[in-house]
Structure prediction request, 373 residues.
Amino acid sequence: MSTQATPEVKQADFAGVDSQARGAHVDQPAPALKKQAPKAGPTTLAASLNTALADAMAADPSMVVFGEDVGKLGGVFRITDGLQDRFGQERCFDTPLAESGIAGMAVGMAMNGMRPVVEMQFDAFAYPSLEQVFSHIAKMHNRTMGKVRLPITIRIPYAGGVGGVEHHCDSSEGYYAHTPGLKVFTPSGVEDAYLMLREAIASDDPVIFFEPKSMYWSKEEADLGALRESYEAGDAERTEGTARVVRPGKDATLIAYGPSVPTAFAAAEVAAAEGLDLEVLDLRTIVPLDDAAIDASVRKTGRAIVIAQSQGFASVASELVARVQERNFHSLSSPVLRVTGFDIPFPAPKLEKHQIPSVDRILDAVDALTWED
Prediction:
């Protein structure tokens, strides 16, 4: 009886597949990218993600990028800009408006040795794909007793702050974090965005990669060329499962991720002018979660506030509060608080400033902590 080739064998044989199936360009050097990678200096988060995709595609001919309008247009937020020109329409291509089909096609590709990276155009647009994600992408490795892995990265622009409406500004990370078998990443800075996307694509497990759309055009000093060399040499900092302290402090810990990190940082700066020294901890990856870093920070400060744009009920923030109090109860000088979105559908643009956690709401929570030691 014949046996099916393993995904590893299929991956190794990828370059030999008929060019009609994969594209004749696979065995040829990629043509020069018309739009050069950003030089060292002020760099946007969007440019960082675009460069990470291009570098990963250049490094691995089995990687393909697809989704709605990601080819010629370069994506609604231009994150895939220039990829089709460089790598051809066989490796970066548009799909019909059918998110379930996009995710299902990624499953078949990944099972046959490819490394798909798909874009869901907006957070809530991904909901039609949830059956594929929850029933197949998250469970295939377990269902096959470890014989089949699905190296799929699903990129999702998420959260508010751009004047959008419902179906365009959801913070849906809780659905995915609740599902065993998925990793959940969300960067908050330019260098992290590059490294985290490269790690997500390289992972043999499926990764839901949440991109804070309000931060796409925020700029930081970065040298993506040097970062590429460091990553490909194996010298770069590991980001998966490692939170980072973006502002040290001693009085309380602000725990945040994605678009809430700069807001938490701004609140800490205002609090410093009022005599309080707040630590800001960026989780970076929700799954896996860096419990050790959270514990170390909270045990140092004795107080914690969790900040997230998603609604508070049954959320990632709820889980973080529970874990902090279960693991650090005797180190706490105050109950752990939350500053989150309200438990309502995302409101109209004129009202979103009330829905999204703000510096004032965070400082109000800081005032509500117990300060008598």
Remarks:
- The chain has two domains: 7-232, 244-368.
- The mean pLDDT is 91.
